Amino acid sequence: MKPNDADTVLLTEPSISGHRLAYVRLLAEESLKRDHQVHIALPEGGRESAEFATHLGHLFGDIELSVLPKFNLKGVEAHSRLVNAERTVITDGDALALQLARAHKWNGSGRVSVLIMREHAQPDNSRIKMWMKNHAKQLIYSWVSSIKDVDLALLKSSLWTGRCHLRTATDPIQLSCTEADVVRLRHEWNLGESEYWFAVLGAITPRKNVRLIAECLAAISSGGIGLLIAGKIDTDLRVEIDQSVAQLSAKGASIKIVDRLLTDIELDAAVLAVDCLVLAHSNEGPSGLLGKAASAATTVVSAGAISLRNDMVALGGSAQWSPLQHEPLSLALRKARESHVAREPVSSSTSSFLEALVPRG
After folding, report:
1. What pairs with residue 10 in β-bridges?
2. Of the candidates 27, 20, 21, which has an alpha carbon nearest to the alpha carbon of residue 113?
3. Which residues of 271-303 are buried (b: 16+ CB within 10 A; e: fewer)?
4. C-beta of residue 138 within 8 angstroms of C-beta of residue 165
5. Which of 189-198, 279-288, 297-306, 337-346 is the least confident region?
6. Percentage of the chain surpassing pLDDT 90?
7. How confident is the model at residue 317, as a pLDDT?
8. Do the beta carbons of residue 277 and residue 298 sit within 8 Å?
9. Which of 35, 269, 301, 324 could form a disulfide with 181 if both were Cys (CB 3.0 to 4.6 A apart)?
């Protein structure tokens, strides 16, 4: 543990799903490097979760852990005062940003960093409603950013190079595996070299549209392709996915399903091991996997989210985007398989993310 007179950083995260605890890990490791005392507040059951063991287990002896049954503004403020935090970081701060806007005051200890993970409203059939929601979000962000001792940051794609009048945090990208890890994963998961491997990775939820991807691959498959689905699959989706890939397998495709939480090394090695990462997202927001694929020079086919379409423009080359529909996505997948365009890897970095949320000084 750090000495009692060290500055204290409080990292609060209301959800353990997806990549959220990976963000907490990065922030904790950076804060420990700076000789800060690190407190982490998670929801009930967070300490016992597989996600905690994967992302934070190695830091167990270097951090203080707390449970916050309810993540609301008053609760986080009270906990920051309890631990005398110099800096509090709310890594999934969309809901608390609205509470801060209403209160127009941070009553916690020190300063607070609020990360907005979903800058834009989710898709709506009404363009007017979409515009109104996004306009309201921008007003809230600007209002919260004006509050004393509050540092609000918008999470941007790792490929974003634009300008913004508010603080931004670029999605942090790290590839933590070696070539030996990639070779071992290909062997253990039986990813044959004769197939062209498409992959859906990470937390497998309805928003990733695995059934649609499998149907599109079945439409173009005459053998010679593989589909890797690796990550914790929502229980309600497993039967649907099994049925979809069975139809794809009947067309001659190779199938590999790894239904569990992946380690950081496994996830990174999978991105490097496959030929094409497929991101068919129903929701808007930055994709950390896209950044990893760009850093690994792995081909990407994306669909659905407009945020992904914007990233495809930034990637150029063989990167493709399509509407979340059977025919155009099938065409994009076919083009990816037939393309022989070599891509240069995009440099990876965590500095923007860290400096936005735990700034020095």
Report:
1. 39, 88
2. 27
3. bbbbbbbbbbbbebbbbbbbbbbbbbebbbbbb
4. no
5. 337-346
6. 65
7. 66
8. yes
9. 269
pLDDT digits (tens, 9 = 90+) for 117-129: 887 766 666 777 7
DSSP reduced 3-state for 17: coil
Give the count of beta carbons closer than 10 Å to the beta carbon of residue 251. Answer: 14
DSSP, residue by residue, 280-298: EESS-S--HHHHHHHHHT-
Looking up tokens 């962000």 gives 141
Contact present, 296 and 175 (Cβ < 8 Å): yes
pLDDT digits (tens, 9 = 90+) for 63-91: 999 999 889 999 999 999 999 999 999 99
Cα separation, 48 vs 42, in Å, equals 11
Spell out the residues 6+ positions from residue 302 whose beta carbon is closer than 8 angstroms to its own.
Answer: 278, 279, 280, 281, 287, 290, 308, 309, 311, 312, 319, 320, 321, 322
User: What does DSSP assign to residue 233?
Assistant: B
Whole-model pTM: value is 0.86
Distance of CA 341 to the CA centre of its chain: 27
Q: Tokens 């990407």 belong to which residue?
A: 300
- Please identify which residue in the block is written with the tokens 């990733």: 208
User: Distance (Å, rounded) from C-alpha 93 to C-alpha 36?
Assistant: 22
CA 166/CA 218 separation, integer angstroms: 45
| Residue that the structure tokens 């940003």 belong to | 97
Other Cβ atoms less than 10 A from the Cβ of 157: the count is 21
